[in-house]
């Protein structure tokens, strides 16, 4: 079992349980799923906002935005263009609530009990994240189904829909880790919610989520090239359309759709590892003394 510098004093002399890494991960996966089922309000609220965005954006801005989307001889509906962006918004919204759940644990004393237990800190974080992954996959599936009802087309079929879910899950890892890091740092629900939401909407609007890069203002184009949302949306959109759509970096080595998927997935994996490592470090650093 791993042991961080902050918890060495509290775990010294503690007899380790017979649980394996997988066993610790499974216990936390089950616990967070039970907690989610007992509080369906969070599930519903994190899904309602993206649905409102999908319906309002396609109905209000659909005709205007379709012209901008189809510059360069493309021929797709705004519904088809927007669904991948809304899928990434679902992943962002669900990941933002992850830290709130951790703050609840801190406030009711459950987090302190976990810290003094012999469970592996990485397994604790991964078990919680895995439970949220199930929720995110289900919510993205609902958005894709609703998008199809509104007129969107998934060129790659059912396999493509599953691929978009996988991209959404990978995309959510870095923001889930960030949300949990904010929760450990602030130990306060309001601060965690404000911190996560403060980033969520600017990240969406300064990316290629709602309009192509070429029609965005110059300064937004610069920010969009470094925005993780751009890479998540472009990967999902490439699967949705079945072709290369990456415009923030020029890659031609892989051919077709893979010129978008390979660089986008590489960026998302790097972000997941970097932010996930920080989150695990913060959990290791936390001790029963500083989570009062």
Automatic annotation (TrEMBL):
Its main location: membrane. The keyword Transport does not apply. The chain crosses the membrane at residues 41-61, 81-103, 133-152, 158-186, 198-220, 261-283. Keywords: Membrane, Transmembrane, Transmembrane helix. Pfam families: ABC2_membrane. InterPro entries: ABC2_TM (IPR013525), ABC2_TM_bact-type (IPR047817), ABC_2_transport (IPR000412), Nod_factor_ABC_transporter (IPR051784). It is found in: Membrane. It comes from the Archaea. Residues 41-286 form the ABC transmembrane type-2 domain. It is a multi-pass membrane protein. This is ABC transporter permease.
């Amino acid at each position: 079992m791993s042991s961080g510098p902050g918890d060495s004093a509290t775990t010294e002399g503690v007899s380790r349980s017979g649980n394996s890494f997988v066993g610790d991960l499974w216990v936390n996966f089950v616990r967070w799923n039970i907690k989610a089922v007992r509080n369906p309000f969070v599930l519903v609220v994190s899904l309602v906002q993206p649905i409102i965005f999908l319906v309002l954006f396609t109905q209000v801005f659909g005709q205007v935005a379709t012209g901008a989307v189809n510059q360069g001889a493309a021929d797709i509906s705004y519904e088809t263009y927007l669904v991948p962006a809304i899928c990434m918004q679902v992943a962002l919204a669900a990941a933002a609530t992850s830290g709130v759940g951790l703050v609840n644990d801190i406030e009711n004393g459950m987090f302190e009990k976990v810290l003094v237990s012999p469970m592996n800190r990485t397994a604790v974080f991964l078990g919680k994240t895995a439970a949220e992954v199930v929720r995110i996959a289900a919510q993205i599936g609902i958005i894709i189904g609703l998008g199809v009802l509104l007129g969107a087309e998934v060129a790659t079929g059912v396999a493509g829909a599953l691929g978009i879910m996988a991209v959404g899950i990978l995309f959510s890892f870095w923001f889930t880790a960030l949300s949990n890091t904010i929760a450990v740092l602030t130990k306060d629900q309001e601060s965690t919610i404000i911190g996560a939401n403060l980033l969520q909407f600017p990240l969406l609007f300064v990316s290629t989520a709602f309009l192509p890069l070429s029609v965005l203002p110059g300064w937004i184009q610069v920010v969009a090239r470094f925005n993780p949302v751009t890479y998540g949306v472009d990967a999902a959109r490439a699967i949705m359309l079945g072709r290369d759509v990456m415009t923030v970096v020029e890659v031609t080595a892989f051919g077709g759709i893979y010129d978008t998927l390979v660089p986008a997935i590489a960026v998302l994996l790097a972000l997941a590892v970097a932010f996930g490592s920080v989150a695990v470090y913060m959990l290791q650093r936390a001790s029963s003394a500083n989570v009062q």
